[in-house]
Amino acid sequence: MTAQAPSAVVLVRPHHFDVNPVTAADNVFQTAEPNHSAARATSAYRETTALAEALQAAGVRVHLFEDERTDRPDSVFPNNWISTHIGGHVAVYPMFAPNRRLERRQDILDLLKAEYRVQDIIDYSGLEVDGLYLEGTGAMVLDNDERVAYVARSNRADPIALERFCTNFGYEPMVFDAADPSGTPIYHTNVLMCIATDFVLAGVSMMQPDARRAEIVERLSAGGREVVDLDFDQICDFAGNAMELSGTNGRILAMSRRGADSLRPDQRAVIERSCRIVTVDVPTIELSGGSVRCMIAGIHLTPRRTGVSPAGISPAGADAAPTLFASH
Length: 328
Fold this sequence. Notes:
By secondary structure, the chain is an alpha/beta fold. It has ten helices and 17 strands. It has a single domain, classed as L-arginine/glycine Amidinotransferase, Chain A, CATH 3.75.10.10. The two termini are 29 Å apart. Keywords: Transferase.
């Protein structure tokens, strides 16, 4: 595991997935209306299963939680309410949409404490009563090597909440404006940017103003990283919504097939110098404006037990061989 590429993840498999009507106003990547259909829910369930199996096959340890509730349409995106950090630190975040606040789960926190060395859990969710939101590694894209938090300014990333996080966790905030060609602000930074160990995928042209854009690119290039500039069409195809992970045979870049198919050969070559691209079709889940990166909560924590296989789809607190499990 590197600072940027964890070897274990949490996924949440939804049984009643749907497009969230509460988030439609500011998520321009959301491309469908709610329909409460069994077919849509079944498709999202299968897509999440496919992601879990693909990551497992690559040698990533997967903690797969079930969500059978009907009032959490976006529960497949746990990265917005929780993040974990080297040194045993966990953050819990304040969420903009009231129905997304229901996604926070004690059983996931209990799993982390049981399976990994957790020193503290800092819970920012109380900021919601004051209208202050910071939607985790959706609102922030974290450079764990350079200790920089890149944040596209939006109502999902309040500056007060961001300052508290950066002070507690030791990051420098780097805030910028980002918008699509029509001028609509980008709602989550992780749709725009992916920071890996040796490269960055970023919608550079969408960062504003020009001087700030140049400053961000210079900072992203620190340490020799190569910046791969994605155009707006590629951002819409979720090419920037990817995550580097550590598998048993080296680092991988997990992304949707749609995002991978949008890459040019020269862009793919930069990625494949240090990562193997692992793709999964998630078209149903992408209707909600998020893709593979949004589905993954990375675990940057040290396992409690020695000899634990890094790969597998694991039950919470189980001592047996990894298997699929249900956690309610």
